[in-house]
Amino acid sequence: MRQSLAQSHDQVGDRITLIIPSLTDAAIELHRQQMWNKGYQLESKIECQTFFSSDGREIDTLFEGKAMYSATFIKRED
């Protein structure tokens, strides 16, 4: 299900990380979400990495082990 962060804005905190399959898709999504207009700034450069989850005992690979791009935003202090 595709949605804008504006639709879930009351559930969003001071830090948001978007995980996106390609650098091109990342650029398009960042523009589409209009993060600056929503009061956020990019924390650092967009990084390509592999993601895992853990329950404290076992580690599971996310996204079938495919490297994804992540862009983390933090709430601007105005």
The separation of the N and C termini measures 32 Å
Q: How many domains comprise the coordinates? A: 1
E-strand count: 6
Q: What overall form do the CA principal axes indicate?
A: globular
Percent range for helical residues?
A: 10-25%
Q: State the order of secondary-structure elements, H for helix, E for strand.
A: EHEEEEE
Give the helix/strand class.
alpha+beta
Number of helices: 1
Mean pLDDT: 82
Radius of gyration: 14 Å
Low-confidence stretches: none
Largest sheet: 4 strands, antiparallel
Q: DSSP strand (E) fraction?
A: 25-35%
What's this entry about, in short?
The chain is α+β, with helices and mostly antiparallel strands. The protein has 1 helix and 6 strands; from the N terminus they run βαβββββ. It has one domain.
